[in-house]
Amino acid sequence: MNSFAESRTIRIKDEYDVIIIGGGIAGVSAALAARRSGMRVLIIEKGVALGGLATSGLVVFYLCALCDGYGRKIMSGIAEELLHLSIKYGYNTLPKAWANNLEKIDTRHRYATAFNAYAFILALDELMEQEGIDVLFDTVFSSAVVEDGWCKGVIVENKEGRIGYRAAMFVDASGDADLMKRSGAACVEDGNWLTYWAYSTNLSKMASALEKNDIYQGLKLEFHGSSRTGRKHPEGMKRFTIHDGMEISEFVKAGRKLLLDHVKQFDTKAESLTTLPTLPQLRTTRRIDGHYVLTNADKNVVFEDSIGCSTEEDKPFHIFEIPYRTLITPGIRNIVAAGRIISSIDQARESTRLISTCAVTGQAAGTAVKLAIELGCAIQDIPVGELQRRLADAGAIIHYKPVQAKYPGATSLDPDYSRQADDDSSIDPSGSPGH
């Protein structure tokens, strides 16, 4: 016998306006946007900390930058709020020029920072409590109850057993499109290069921290394995997917093996590991096949249905506007995607999977579900102009338009600081809303 048969009745534990699968930066941002619009919100998180890869995964650099590289802000709203929250109770590397949240300053320093993962976790806990957002830790999403494209509820597993939750609207911020996939959405899986981050310290680092009176100087990032482009991927090693649990386990063990080979060379009286990640540090896993796929060809294109902007980290002025269509997929009527699972590929995905952009798409998702509930319509049918207006009113930057930079030989991208999201003058006529 090659299968088990299962038939049971699942008890409904509670009902919410909005349920969010995943408590990473995208999920937190969606929860904040939905809750601040009056919704009753639940985050279901498989770990025991909010922040996802940014915290439990030790990806402790708040990137991509919130500016274009020439002193112009391109991201604001919850993305900017969470950047400052990440350093509220810990060290930071935020350039002084960006300390006052200005929209345009005379600097080439990027609006980004390193942060203490554990201080950020505590700050996120505090914020969720202040906002009145329910968080269910140590709970794994198992399956969705779907009828005619509408998700009626989700089934989860935790110490209580197998239980269900109902909601009117859902946000998939799982990082792996788990809710979308198990609800019948078309999805695409990608392979991952082997990467492993950890932290260590040594006597030299400690001495430098004491000398400079800066504890951040006492930390050493242990980066092993491949770059995001595959450079230094171990020879002969496959690219990893999330096809099954065993492959995830192989990924984690292979990364730790790389670190162990390095640690074996430590002088144990002078060097020590301090922190290991508690999540698989996968960059790209599964994404939705949305109404629109954002690609490299969309660099510096202005979209009429944009919900915010992102940038290539090492290339100033390479801006991606993010169409709302990349957050939704055909046939799924009350689930919206947020975070690295949105419909993007290649360099566009490298940009949209990063922390700050996850906050941008999370805020858009949380705002969209409120609008859909309010209008009693499917997530695909909300008026995008109204979504943009609400995002802009909450501080988000929706569009940019080309202007001449002050720096010789450079072409800048000026965000639409008028924040009038429905003003056609902010649309670049040369940009196309689709291909």
TrEMBL record:
UniProt entry tagged with the keyword Transmembrane helix: yes
Keywords annotated in UniProt: 4Fe-4S, Iron, Iron-sulfur, Membrane, Metal-binding, Oxidoreductase, Transmembrane, Transmembrane helix
InterPro entries referenced in this protein's UniProt entry, alphabetically: FAD/NAD-bd_sf, HdrA-like
Protein name: FAD-dependent oxidoreductase
Residue ranges crossing the lipid bilayer per the database entry: 16-35, 47-67
The organism's place on the tree of life at top rank: Bacteria
An example molecular function term from Gene Ontology annotations: oxidoreductase activity
Stretches the record annotates as Disordered: 409-435
One Pfam match: FAD_oxidored
SUPFAM superfamilies documented for this protein: FAD/NAD(P)-binding domain
